[in-house]
Structures are given as structure tokens and as C-alpha cells.
Predict the structure.
Amino acid sequence: MAWKTIERPGYLGKKRDEVQRSWDERFGVGNWKIAWVWSGLVLDRPEALQLYEDGYYEFLKFSSRTLKWLVRTASDVYDTAPSNVSAGFSYDIQETINNHIHDVAIRRAVFRNGVWFEGSQLIQVRGKGSDGESLSPHLVPFHRHDLILDANIRDYGGKGLWWRQLGIPKSIEEFYQHNKVLQIRE
């Protein structure tokens, strides 16, 4: 069965469940999906998350100072709650209301760089003023910024392009939000 892209939904935020229920009502359960556009291809979540993770891998590979600080300081990282650590390397373990993927991506990127956490601090990598704020996806440059789509996206979350307002251009978050598409079964 073929899929057809109908819009670029961008950030869903706290309205995610509400928006997804509306898509269920409009298109039918199982008749829509979120995907990501990449260099003429349409990717499902696992492939998009691999690219997201690759952004962290490349950043940490070329920012040895940040990588050294992270592995010396952190015992692990978390995003929305300390319980995020239980996800380990799995993007599918989501035990909190908000999705947490960049903590998983960071864990996997650290491992792929051939090192592991040796520190004693559980580091939060989300939120202004957190110890790991510099590793928030809106502050880390994406390794293939040339393949990030323009900002012509729908704002379901009601926060505008928050990743641009608070972060840097061509970030990992910008890739994740700008290249996201809503597809329906044809």
C-alpha cells in the first residue's frame, strides 16, 4: 500500500496526543504515519532516529572537549526524568508523557565513539540551566545541515520555531522538526 505526504506537521509538543487523536478520527487508526524526508527519500522513525543519533555522534567525535567532559562527569544522561536511564539504548522505551530521544541518542553516540560514562553525576540534557544544557538538540549542529528542509511547517505545538528562537541554526532539532511529514494511506 502506498503512502502520500499531505503536510509537514513540525513540533507537536504537549498537543501530541490530541493532534494524533484528530488524525485517527480524520484518517482512521493505522491510516496515517509520521515520516521524515531525506534527500528525496521518505524515512520511517528508525531511519530518522539513526540520522538524529548520527548528528550527536559526529558532534561528539569532533568536539573531544565536550565528549571528555561528558564521560568524566556523567554516570549517565536523562531528558525528562531520571527514569529515562532505564531506556538504555532503546528509542522505544518511553516511560514518561513526553518523548525522550536525545538522551538515548547521546548514550548511543558516546558508545559509538568508543567510550562510556565514568563520572558520578546523573546529567540532565534538557532545559535551561541544566548541567547538560549544551547537549540539547536545539544547541547541537546537525552534521548534514544541507539536507534540512525549509521552515514551511505547521505549528501544532503553538510554540513557533522554538528551536530557532532558543538555539542555533541547522541544529539536530531543526532536522527532526523540519523534515517531519504526515503521510496517509492512498
Summary: The longest strand covers residues 32-38. The first helix runs from residue 16 to 27.
